Hints:
Blueprint: E1 9-16, H1 41-54, E2 60-63, H2 65-70, H3 72-80, E3 84-87, H4 100-118, E4 124-125, H5 139-145, E5 150-151, E6 172-174, E7 179-181, E8 186-189, E9 192-195, H6 199-204, H7 207-219, E10 226-229, H8 246-253, H9 256-269, E11 271-273, H10 275-278, H11 280-286
Parallel strand pairs: 1-2, 1-10, 1-11, 2-3, 4-5, 5-7
Antiparallel strand pairs: 6-7, 8-9
Amino acid sequence: MTDHPSVTTNAMTVDVEDYFQVSAFESYVSxxxxxxxxxxxxxNTDRILELFDQHDVKATFxxxxxxxxxxxxxxxxxxxxxxxxASHGWxxxxxxxxxxxxxxxxxxxSKASLEQVSGTEVxxxxxxxxxxxxxxxxxxxxxxxxxxxxSSSIAPIKHDxxxxxxxxxxxxxxxxxxxxxxxITTTRIFSKNYPCGGGGWFRLYPYAVSKWAIDRVNxxxxxxxxxxxxxxxxxxxxxxxNNLDAKTKFRHYQNLGQMERKxxxxxxxxxxxxxxxxxxxxxxxxx
Length: 287
């Protein structure tokens, strides 16, 4: 969308949710039972803040409104450390499971909670599990009406749970150019998009593969990469959820013990800043 002739800065993001709140566990852990789990999101996020401070990293923290309500001091520490606070919805309900009205209510509730706790305006949003799809094409309109300016809610890949494979790979606009969409980063090989923006893929791939892919996006596409991960991914000692199916167990627990070491390498190999900093020109144009 925009020429980045010399890409030296990429966008770091964190989806702030606890280990028992992930979409893959929805059929195993009801929201009514969340109160019965020992929370680990505060301790893990504080460790991330420490790592970011050590490596001069600034990031966008897509945070659940539920987290703001239950851990207000954590949200204040995120903001006081100079990071960008954005919304990840109220309680991690996928947009594919919400009506337009329910989505609007979710956006309003999470935005109000985050702003009240932090004292800052929240204008960014990431859908849980990248659940902006062709089936809910109304999502960006609802987002704009709720007062948001940018979104990072589309995965331009083919996946069994989400994704729009033929969506633009890089920054683009919706709703009369007023909402900026920032898809999670992919690299294109033989006419197919492959994810290289973090999450389970980063834990699965050898570090050299992830670095090669990010370098390729910076060099060949001349675009910033957007990387994401979750606080629970640096926590190999988290309590295990019982009776998971094999695919869910593999996706959630694969290589958790290697994640922090790989993340530290990543933080040192690139310059990382918040989404509003990296995409300041695009956001100004959209506004």
